[in-house]
Amino acid sequence: MAIILNIETATEVCSVCISKQNDILAIETSEEQYSHASNITRFIENCCRNAKLTLDDIDAVAVSQGPGSYTGLRVGLSTAKGICYALDKPLIGVDTLKAIATAANKATKNEQYDLVCAMIDARRMEVYHAIFDFKSVRQNIKTTEAYILDEDAYKVYFQKEKSILFCGNGSTKASGIISDSRAHFSNVVCSAAHLVPCAYEAYISANFEDTAYFSPFYLKTPNITKAKKII
User: Fold this and answer.
1) Which of 24, 90, 192, 204 is deepest in the core (most CB within 10 A)?
2) pLDDT for residue 173
3) Alpha-carbon radius of gyration of the chain
4) How are beta strands 164-167 and 183-185 bridged, if at all?
């Protein structure tokens, strides 16, 4: 009966939940911009209180590993690592795009598509995406990459008579560009709740990360600018 603390900070969403196997015991979520650092420890405390648990009762900590926001991913992983170090708990890394795709698949279980494409907004016309077989999200059709959206986006798949379910916070941008009738759009975005099935599967398989050396999957080097000197 694994009890897992799940942390999601890959996008603008800051979300924490505690799960027992595949059931959610407590969850806290905010979409307030730039609030991850100020919210995350409070959310963890609230979830523990609402679930009537302490961090000592947790069997493992799962964290969304990216791709996504450079700062958000660092906040989430540093918090997860701190708990794991302090309490000697195993660390689980969950592929952010796979978690979104799994959730979108579950949310549309009464409908049938060929592919599911999870995408995270990477600003301008770029997204980070990965494409999975809809029937078996474990099967990657296209591994994670940065992708530029234009009028010909995903044309190669539509030419093969493939229907695609787009999900994640990048799908809103994609819906204004992709007009093919075989394109469908889900409102599923990042949430700690979506980490739960992947985290539990990793836990029962003892698929843990090295707490000392595990790092987020940024995909691209962060664009860090230096402040101008004021004379």
Assistant:
1) 192
2) 94
3) 18
4) parallel
Phi, psi of 23, deg, nearest 5: -100, 140
Residues 219 and 67 sit within 8 Å (Cβ to Cβ): yes
- Amino acid symbol at 230: I
- Bridge partners for 24 per DSSP: 19
| Euclidean distance between CA atoms 52 and 50, whole angstroms | 5
Alpha-carbon distance of 209 to 3, in angstroms, equals 17
34 Cβ contact partners less than 8 Å away, ≥ 6 residues apart:
none
Task: Write down the pTM of the prediction.
Answer: 0.92
The answer for residues whose C-beta is within 8 angstroms of residue 210's C-beta and 6 or more apart is: 91
Q: Identify the H or E element spanning 96.
A: helix 96-107
Which tokens sit at 32?
A: 């307030």
Domains in the chain, please, with CATH? 3-95+190-204 (3.30.420.40), 96-185 (3.30.420.40)
Location of structure tokens 């964290």: 63
35-45 pLDDT, tens digit each: 899 999 999 99
Q: Which two tokens stand for residue 62?
A: 């799962």
